[in-house]
Amino acid sequence: EQTRQAQIYGVRPGRIFEQAAAKFVLENQHKRSLSSDIGRLKQLMPWIGEIPLDKIHTGILLPWIDHRRREGVAVGTINHGLKVVRRILNLAASEWVDDYGLTWLQASPKIKLLPDTNKRQPYPLNWDEQQLLFSALPAHLAEMALYAVNTGCRDAEICNLRWDWEVQVPPLK
Questions:
Q1: What letter would DSSP give residue 117?
Q2: Whole-model pTM?
Q3: What residues contact residue 17 under an 8 Å CB cut-off, 6+ apart?
Q4: Which residues neighbour 99 within 8 Å (Cβ) at sequence distance 6 or greater?
Q5: Alpha carbons within 13 A on the beta-carbon side of 53
Q6: Does 17 score more than 70 pLDDT?
Q7: Would you state the torsion angle of the CA atoms of residues 48, 49, 51, 54, taken in this order, to the nearest 10 degrees?
């Protein structure tokens, strides 16, 4: 009957969040942060694992959010869990297609992140802090950090530099 409903009327088979989470984990074995995502999903499963995908929205997640707040978990950690849920729902609505040519979810709900007001603001190092940092690093990393501080290059730009790109500038020795 489920096959008939899907083929004739375009009715999506019912899937629960746990099935979508399992598919997400299997498809993302390449992610460096997968173990972190799995940890978040384990936290979420008792709360939303058995809920059908089309019934999940921010309101369903509020009890889990309140529970995590009561545990004293940082807002950034809670937001990471919400990001994983949001990613799974977005994939279910846009990329995951079943045997009948239907996406797993008709539309993805908007999962808003919590405002993170306790986040420590970045600030420039003063001279003493910079000297303390450089003295704690091995020589090869201290030189790289000095280069980063003086050029403003990002980590990836610095770490991907290659010696064969070096250009000698005689007046500068």
A1: -
A2: 0.69
A3: 44, 45, 48, 49, 50, 51, 52, 53, 56, 85, 88
A4: none
A5: 28
A6: yes
A7: 90
First-to-last C-alpha distance (Å) of the chain:
79
* Runs of H (alpha helix) within 31-74: 34-48, 58-70
Output the CA angle 80-84-86, nearest 5 degrees.
110
Q: Model confidence over 75-101: pLDDT tens digits?
A: 999 999 999 999 999 999 999 988 777
- How many angstroms separate the CA atoms of 116 and 76, rounded? 7
- Residue 11's pLDDT band (boundaries 50, 70, 90)? low
What is the spatial distance between Cα 131 and Cα 119, in angstroms, rounded to a whole number? 25
Tokens encoding 171: 């007046």
Buried b (16+ CB within 10 A) or exposed e, 28-37: eeeeeeeeeb
Of 64, 62, 58, 53, the C-alpha closest to 24 is 53
Given a contact cutoff of 8 angstroms between Cβ atoms, the answer to whether 93 and 108 are in contact is yes
Q: Is 157 exposed, middle or buried (0-12, 13-18, 19+ CB in 10 A)?
A: exposed
Angstrom distance (rounded) from CA 100 to CA 3 = 8
